[in-house]
Specification:
Elements lengths: L4 H16 L4 E5 L3 E2 L39 H4 L2 H9 L2 E4 L6 E6 L2 H10 L4 E4 L4 E6 L5 E5 L2 E4 L5 E2 L9 E2 L2 H4 L30 H16 L5 H16 L7 H13 L4 H15 L5
Parallel strand pairs: 6-10
Antiparallel strand pairs: 1-2, 1-3, 3-9, 4-6, 4-8, 5-6, 7-8
Helix pairs in contact: 1-3, 6-7, 6-8, 7-9
Length: 287
């Protein structure tokens, strides 16, 4: 359905304003959904478009591939193929994770009441049925993390609803915890490694060094947008090569890494296999 000229211009102007603030945008068609892939990109035959920061194999000038089409390039947004999409667009969307943002999408009054009791105040925007709460920081996206609550950040899109009210605050742990899955039947493996010479003391400066390393590893896994299996294995290998010989790694540390990997879609078995392979590569014992 073609939109009136003034609405089309407003959508395009909004998109350009957001892009100028380094917020990746894309048009939405009727039904609040992205435009479908063109013939060239049907079934991702083009190879897909992994993200908007790194050039991918898809060079299609049309806004294909949903959230991954989001861009901050004004030349793309105003290009001929995108203009054809704006003619039919019903709204402007953006990729929150690409702007280092997270949207807590609250679908009804009960969800809003829960957020007001549980989460720190931040910038909010009214929706048709509820509210969007916007936090500074990115994380994995997930639907239905609790009744009426979705998380929209990396590899997802959100409809732009205006500047909102209130001051945006940093992404709290309470929101991050919403996407952490319950441990599966397969638990992370326990690790026993040879003690180093010198009485088995840790050669690292402080326990903070290990904690920072685990946090960086979690972030590396969380931000993987492609080749997740390989990223998980390489990350496990890096952690074990640095910390695997001093005896400081505990089941709590491995559980944090496994949880991050499972949040990206890895099964408990895949996690265990990757950990075991990393141990074998480094010549470390495991039980």
């Amino acid at each position: 359905m073609t939109q009136p000229t003034d609405i089309r211009r407003e959508h395009l102007r909004t998109a350009l304003d957001l892009a100028a603030s380094q917020i990746p945008v894309l048009p939405l068609r009727v039904g609040k959904v992205p435009f479908g892939n063109c013939r060239r990109c049907t079934d991702n035959a083009c190879g897909g478009r992994p993200n908007m920061k790194t050039p991918g194999p898809c060079t299609c000038p049309y806004p294909c591939h949903g959230w991954a089409a989001a861009t901050t390039d004004p030349d793309v947004i105003q290009s001929g193929m995108w203009r054809r999409a704006w003619v039919q667009a019903s709204a402007v969307a953006y990729h929150p994770g690409g702007a280092w943002l997270t949207v807590v999408d609250l679908d009804h009054a009960e969800a809003i009441a829960w957020a007001r009791e549980t989460l720190p105040a931040t910038q909010t925007m009214p929706t048709t049925r509820g509210e969007h709460w916007l936090y500074l920081g990115s994380m994995p996206s997930a639907n239905a993390v609790r009744p009426g609550v979705d998380i929209k950040s990396t590899m997802a899109y959100a409809r732009y609803l205006g500047p909102g009210t209130g001051t945006m605050t940093a992404l709290p742990d309470a929101v991050r915890a919403l996407t952490v899955k319950e441990p599966g039947p397969t638990r992370p493996v326990s690790v026993t490694v040879p003690a180093p010479a010198g009485g088995g003391e840790c050669p690292h400066r402080t326990p903070t060094y290990l904690d920072r390393g685990i946090a960086m590893a979690e972030q590396r896994i969380t931000e993987a947008r492609s080749a997740v299996h390989a990223t998980v294995y390489r990350t496990f290998l890096a952690v074990l090569s640095t910390h695997g010989r001093c005896g400081c790694l505990t089941e709590t540390h491995t559980a944090r890494l496994f949880t991050a990997a499972q949040a990206k879609g890895e099964s408990p078995r895949h996690c265990t296999d990757a950990w075991t392979n990393a141990l074998t590569t480094l010549g470390l014992q495991h039980v």
